Amino acid sequence: MDDVREAPDRTTGAAAPGPTGTTGALSALGVRPGDVLLVHAALRSLGPVAGGARGVLAALRRAVGPEGTVVVPAFTPENSDTSPHFRARVRGLDPGAVEDVRAAMAPYDPALTPAPSMGVLAETVRTAPGAVRSAHPQTSFAALGPGAHRLLAGHRPDCHLGEDSPLARLYVADARILLLGTGYGTCTAFHLGEYRMPAPPRRSYRCVVAPHGVRRWWEYEDVALDDGDFPALGAAFEEEAAVGDMSTGHVGAAECRLLRLRAAVDFAALWLTGHRPGRDG
Description:
Blueprint: H1 19-29, E1 36-41, H2 52-64, E2 69-73, H3 84-90, H4 95-104, H5 120-126, E3 132-133, E4 141-144, H6 148-152, H7 166-172, E5 176-180, H8 190-195, E6 202-209, E7 216-223, H9 230-240, E8 246-251, E9 254-260, H10 261-275
Parallel strand pairs: 1-2, 1-5
Antiparallel strand pairs: 2-4, 3-4, 5-9, 6-7, 8-9
Helix pairs in contact: 1-2, 2-5, 9-10
């Protein structure tokens, strides 16, 4: 996911659009009252927005209305020593320094652990009053709205993004995906398509947890997640999407896409099965 920062609320010439103007752009894109909306955002691409990330969140909630729910990834690769984030962090360090990094890694706490690599909008949702967060120590989601508890409950800790994760519940809820100034490489829902491939490859993961307040490393096996071909997958989906399954438009300065999650996942499962031949566990 994009590591983004909130755009400053100053402008050079043009006034920053307020939440109401941003809401209008979201509605024109096709966001409707009552929607369950999974949002991936690169806020810098929007240009200045009055209120920054809080203004964008206010616009999203206004667009989905009081019956709608806004969901964001709140992933935490920072507490894992099997993640690309960790490998990049310790690259070039000697073994002792690597162990120091591991020893300093904090265990996941759904109420407190930040998700800095997910960007400022995700953190704004996660820390908002009334927000709910799922329990997975590496791939949690945060949500605001009446469907938050139902959608995020029961996120099994050895199931990143599969049938026992919020993605499967978003699929059942006929949610939609908003790529707010970001591309298909960040489209988390495609991972559910990986789980729905025949016999997807699996691998081991390890992260820091603290059950009953006792810090420990926990290792588990799950589907081997790979988003390297998601841009190509997204381009193929866009070419073949049925009417109503996707729309494009601008919010601020950013090109944005609105996708029907079910259609995206169903397409991903078929496309990945055909484009990842010969992979095994």
